[in-house]
Amino acid sequence: MKKNKNSRNFNNSINKEYFISPEGIRIKKIYTANDIQKFKHFDNLPGSPPYTRGPYTTMYTERPWTIRQYAGFSSAVETNLFFKKALRSGQNALSVAFDLPTHRGYDSDNELVKGEVGKAGVSIDTVEDMKILFKDIPLIKTSISMTMSGAVLPVLASFIVAGEEQGVKTADLSGTIQNDILKEFMVRNTYIYPPKPSMRIIGDIISYTSKKMPKFNSISISGYHMQEAGANVLQELTYTIANGLEYVQLATKRGMSVDTFAPRLSFFFCVGMNFFMEIAKLRAARYIWSFWMKKLFNPKNNKSLMLRTHCQTSGASLTEQEPYNNIIRTTMEALSASLGGTQSLHTNSFDEAISLPTEFSSQIALNTQLILQNETGITNTVDPLAGSYYVEYLTGELISKSNKMIKEILSSGGMTKAILEGKPKEEIEKMAIAIQAQHDSGKKVVVGVNKFKSTEKTKIDMLEIDDKKIRKQQSISINKIKNTRNNEKVNKELKAIIDAAQSGSGNLLELSINAMRSRATVGEVSNAIASKIGRYKSNVEIFSGIYKKEYNHKDELNKISLVRKDFLNEFGENLKIYLAKLGHDGHDRGIKVIASAFKDFDLDVEISNLFQTPDEVADTAIKNKSHVIGVSSLTAGHRTLIPNLIKSLIKKGADDIVVVCGGIIPQKDHKYLLENGVSAIFGPGMPIPEIAIQTLAVAKDNLKRTHNFRTSRIKD
Asked: Domain holding 586: CATH number?
């Protein structure tokens, strides 16, 4: 392509002003052919390596992307009804959301999961639950995706056995299991076991599925949760590809030929509101994967170079304020994913920043995809934005920057080593803090939240889930199965799993299939493995200095400083706040961002480890001599867990400690929580400086009433 001198001069004159994106890419006002001269990534056709323009020759012109809505509602019975209705409404594949106890390998009757059964997904304890989940849904022709990494062995085993008992050969099952444990250690935190044995489990699954499940994707390498945790597009892209290379390395070291499993690897990306950057990310991802697979492993089959991906619109972009705006956000993100060339897509429901999605909101989310596919004309041509100066520039810049980062990761020992050292997690958390500060300061506009705010509150219907009822039903079912199964056989199969976990020999998925076929429970299989390798506990770190740097409202910072000093002068001590996660919710972005900001405000902040019980949080807060416990709740367990925390404080004689909470807590639950002892509730989108001032205020008011009691209580 010949350079145009006039174009270059014009370009230089108009582009004197520019900004730097969070990815470190210089964004100019106008782009010309001169801006993409140095890039080679677009000199290829769809369906040919390096697949920049798409993994398949015809892409959506012959078959649109797969509509794969992610759903899980309380019980297997309810979810099954929803799935069948979704399939009748135009959805053509299923994606299963499991509840937190299932993710963490606990049966529903375990005392540790009170308040969480069926709350954020479907509860699966046994094969019988899995059979009900897919009742009257022919697994011979329905692709099933399962978001599961922690208890992946018993869950995948249950699916395989459910298929068997539906009359479907294992070789004919199609779909995907997430199985991306490196991502869990970085961001989402629904892990069970330590990193090394967790990687062994992944190796066992890849080995088993490559031999016996040719239509099934053995792993979905997920960047989605990275972006939801705060990663920018470049970080999500790089760390996801690097994780994928780590899994390929793992499998080849076990003696597997790359071409026997690599064609069945799949990816999962988030698509946020940075419209053109997200399109460029998907195009860049295909190029980068092809480049590194060829360079490192030299496969003979071109399908091993091909990156296929599922996408989901961003949950973090959804707002509680003016929730109907979320429909527009999701539509734009879905359009970005389709123009980027995704193979399947989930569109979020507009009410997910408020509560679990209703049937009404889920239907709108599904219709969004149907309209894009059938009314917009975007399926008429392949890679319609190819050749766009701006899109190709962004694609090329992402490729260049990501390749540099991957090279550094590989030369330093690979992604597992990087994760164990905490570097990717640190970078993502720092980015999350910076983004929040930009939101709070108004640097980054969020319509209806920090700009163009409405004075009217929107009322929407919300999904109600009775977790006590579901837990009782699941407990009855578990008890019935245990009383009717051959317990001697179950114990034999569990013993085989224990021995294999200890020795490192045998295939844990194969052994788990045997156990689930005998009607072992998810909890029993998970505990059998944990009995020899333990449950993993991560370290918590609070980063400081980032929020204050990005937040440019000095008057607000000064106000917080004055209120804090007033508290200190009146009571002779700084505010001590203990920020906690209760139950099995591993989404820790919010609590870590708030902890970092509070630290920058010079408050005395401690943060809990994940997966704490109410009693454990109460004990630590008492030990720390905390004035306030701040609870972050994102998965609907607040109605049980937070009142139980307050009861624990009262029982332990520490009812002077103030409890505040925030996260996704529907307005309808506010009265209940306040009546049960919560002092303040902070919804999504509330600026952190405002949260700090209100927290100081409620702590001050409470301490005036309880000062003598508190002094007596904490006296050594």
From this structure: 3.40.50.280
pLDDT of 10 reads 56
230: left (phi over 0), alpha (psi -120 to 50) or beta: left
Q: Specify the amino acid at residue 101.
A: P
469 labelled catalytic:
no
Sign of CA dihedral 190, 71, 129, 310: negative
The count of other CB atoms within 10 Å of the CB of residue 685 is 18
Query: Annotated catalytic, 585?
Result: yes
13 band by pLDDT with thresholds 50, 70 and 90: low
Question: Pick the catalytic residue: 51, 56, 70, 208?
Answer: 70
Q: What is the pLDDT of residues 113-160, one digit of tens each?
A: 998 999 889 999 999 999 999 999 999 999 999 999 999 999 999 999
E runs forming strands in 587-694: 604-607, 628-633, 658-663, 680-682
DSSP characters over 612-674: B-HHHHHHHHHHTT-SEEEEEE-SS-HHHHHHHHHHHHHHTT-TTSEEEEEES--HHHHHHHH
The single residue of 35, 585, 588, 656 carrying the catalytic annotation is 585
Residue 108: name the closest of 356, 357, 468 by CA: 468
Q: Which residue in 106, 208, 224, 393 is the catalytic one?
A: 224
Structural domain count of the chain = 2
As a whole number of angstroms, the distance between CA 633 and CA 341 comes to 35
Is 225 a known active-site residue? yes
- Give the range of the structural domain holding residue 607, as residue numbers without chain letter: 546-714
Tokens of 110: 């375990």
Is the pLDDT reported for residue 4 higher than 80?
Answer: no
> Is 444 a domain residue?
no
Annotated catalytic, 56? no
**Within a domain: residue 701?**
yes
Query: Is residue 1's pLDDT more than 50?
Result: no
In a domain, 334, yes or no: no
Taking Cα atoms as reference points, which of 259, 288, 265, 267 lies closest to residue 410?
Answer: 288
Would residue 103 show up in a list of annotated catalytic residues for this protein? no
**Residue of 119, 281, 581, 584 with catalytic role:** 581
Q: Read off φ and ψ for residue 166, nearest 5 degrees.
A: -90, -5
Structural domain contains residue 693: yes
pLDDT above 90: percentage of residues in the chain:
82
The verdict on whether 239 is a catalytic residue reads no
By the 8 A CB rule, do 145 and 310 touch? yes
Q: pLDDT of 41-57, one tens digit each?
A: 988 899 999 999 999 99
Using left for φ > 0, alpha for ψ between -120 and 50, and beta otherwise, residue 280 falls in alpha
